[in-house]
Amino acid sequence: xxxxxxxxxxxxxxxxxxxxxxxxxxxxxxxxxxxxxxxxxxxxxxxxxxxxxxxxxxxxxxxxxxxxxxxxxxxxxxxxxxxxxxxxxxxxxxxxxxxxxxxxxxxxxxxxxxxxxxxxxxxxxxxxxxxxxxxxxxxxxxxxxxxxxxxxxxxxxxxxxxxxxx
Length: 166
Fold this sequence. Notes:
The chain is mainly beta. It has 2 helices and 10 strands, in the order αβββββαβββββ. A 6-stranded antiparallel β-sheet has the order 2-1-3-4-6-7, with no helix packed on it. Strands 5-8-9-10 form a 4-stranded antiparallel β-sheet. The longest helix has 15 residues, at about 1-15. The N and C termini lie far apart (about 55 Å).
């Protein structure tokens, strides 16, 4: 009987242990390039949202997801950056008007008032093609959130990574 209780205790203990080596702090990032695609905007009463649809461009998608802290209410959030370039693009540097031409949009999704996509208003995106369908891209960009014609907040993200197909 003691052996059965001891065995069951060991099994329960082993099952309850977390064996993951996740040192990311609950942060996950994706750097994806979509070939033969384009961005499509959808405007609704809740704001502007971006979809990736079939097309003739390269669409670059960055997604950062930070898991919620169970000790802090509404603490998780997501950030998204989407932009498109002409198919066949190799190395590039987008600043000022280049950001506008690239149809670039930024979104922060959290427990906050404004969670729709906003066009980039400032910053730089630069990339180098390092292989077939693979780019090293760095970005330091911002988007203004306007309400009644006044800027009430600015979203800024800065990062770099290797974008490649899923």
